[in-house]
Amino acid sequence: MQAINRSGTIPHNQRVTLQSWLYGGIVGAVMAAYYAVFFFPPRLVGVNEPDRFYHLGLSQLMSTRGLLRTLPQVEDLGWGRYFPDKEFLFHALTGAAHWLAGPVGVMLVVPLLGIGIISCLYAILSRVLSPRRAAVLVLAASLLSPVFIFRITLLRPHLLSILCFCLLVGAILRGRALLAAIAAAGFALSYHAFYIPVLAIAVAAAFQWPEAAKGARVWRWAILGLACGIVLNPYFPSTLVMSWDIVKLALGIGLPPGLRSGEELQPLVLLEYIGYFGFLPLAVLGAGALIIIKRLYPAPEIADFWFLFVLSLLLTLLSMKSSRVAEYAVPSVILLVGYALQLAKRRWWLWLTCLMLIAVQGRTSWTYYTDIWSRPQGGESPWYLEAISLLPPEAEGQKVFNCEWVAGSYLLFARPDVRFVDLLEPALLWNASPAKYVARQRLVSGMDESPQRTLREMFRASYVLCGSPALNRQMLGDPQHFEPITGSAPMGPLRVYRILD
Hints:
With 501 residues, this protein is mostly helical. The protein is built from 21 helices and five strands.
């Protein structure tokens, strides 16, 4: 560090560094406080979130078995022969965390990655704004974006991909070729949606940067890193197949009859979109107005602003089709606003931005925080875990027919020694075996006149874990073929039966 000069004051560049670290610490502390209040017990730890238990279960298996090439627990999906893990790097990280500290270690990955994402955005913006203004913008835009802040509070692989996306965008803005390659490779290794970094790299390649050779080198290295991440993934090329399957789910292509894919993949109606993501289109429109007012042509000197503007525009439009894209649109727009403020040279624009955030997304943000704070967060998770606890020790190695696909995640976590039908997404069973998917639907709806035969012959099941009233009535009324396993704790509509010969 530089010494204090003769006048007794700290040099300007040293003051800036100290301020950057100070406000960076404030950003980290605020986010740590958010996770302490809204993530750790008793808040979100018991939320109705089956995918959390899938990742916990998979992390436990990886901590003991290493790289998972098969997942025999879900043989009906074909994973008993080969398991196409589309989130390898994330599960390698959580597997290591489980090996070090068990499920608690896995859950700690969430706040560490979440704080890393917000800190990365602050570090990028603090190069064009004062540390104080960068901290205010990042915290206001993140904490007042309810879906985004909720999504970075979940144990999900997109946490690692969002961090890699932020690092990639920062590397492009700073002309760091090696960092761009590492970030792109990390994205491809951790998440299936590698078309997001492809979009960012393509936009970067479309502009002439101040140092043309350096700019070209950055996006070329990013392409190389992305290609290496895709090809060197130990699950390649099945990751490409899974990526296409997820895209089809988002577009509603090839779904089984009557199935609607996850709500987070669906487009929102306009009023809902404005309430949750109104900041995105308004910020892009504001940046467009700045371009017109100041006549900002795509010159190399402002290539960074134009890069963020085009990238944010494309991601915002895509988020209107699938709200999951907003996980990347929000960070991009936050950076766009920061760079726009730097070009506008109007200090009060920051406070206007904060007021716009409150006006557009304040109500949904308030609903989000009050709901988490006041509403019991257990959901159906305790029911599933309690019902699964009724499975006897001799169920080890046996097949459990789970009426609800969400039950598979709880089974993988609580009883990885049993087998079951499916998990993660009902369309996966349709892709693997349409006949079994149809048979399952008939069983769950009570249309199968001989459920015991179908369960035994088609699914080779020995137990049933079911919340379907229709099938439960059939099994309860057939004591010759089904024996209920009961417990003392309430399990909602869930029932557990042993199938008799």
